[in-house]
Amino acid sequence: MAAPDRDSAHDWGRDTQKIAVLSWISFLTAAVFSVLLFAYIDPLLIVDAVNVQWIESRNAGYALGFFFLWAQAWVACWYTVRLIRRKRRGPTAWRPADRDGRRDGH
Predict the structure, then answer these.
(1) What is the C-alpha to C-alpha distance for residues 42 and 62, in angstroms, rounded to an integer?
(2) Inter-CA distances, 103 with 90, 94, 99, Å
(3) Has residue 53 been placed in a domain?
(4) Which residues cross the membrane (predicted)?
């Protein structure tokens, strides 16, 4: 099998990759936590506790619960991505101290 041509392949930008990874990880997290949540709690009990009249089936409760958990996981992942330290370039970049404890390189 021939290797794909590098020029014809579409490379995703850095922001697109971050959004894709963020969405996939948050989706998997929501799937796991919805299984754990709904193994112990019936979605109709949550609907009765919140007093929402337009949700009439368990499937709608499962779906809304999953999407709520997905949104929560997406926001948590987004904050994590924002808090990751990026490597800075230029004159204001942080440099490790040399042996004498100086950071300016002189």
Answers:
(1) 9
(2) 14, 8, 10
(3) yes
(4) 21-41, 61-81
Q: Convert the pLDDT of each residue in 27-78 to its tens digit.
A: 999 999 999 999 998 888 877 777 777 777 788 888 888 999 999 999 998 8
Contact 78, 34 (CB under 8 A): no
Taken as a whole, the chain contains a residue count of 106
What is the identity of the amino acid at 13? G
Instruction: Let me know if residue 2 belongs to a domain.
Output: no
Q: What residues make up the domain containing 44?
A: 27-83
Q: Which residues contact 61 (CB under 8 A, 6 or more apart)?
A: 42, 43, 44, 46, 47, 55
Q: Is residue 20 part of a domain?
A: no
> Is 32 within a domain?
yes
Name, in order, each residue with C-beta under 8 angstroms of 19's C-beta and a sequence gap of 6 or more: none
Structure tokens at 87: 């490597």
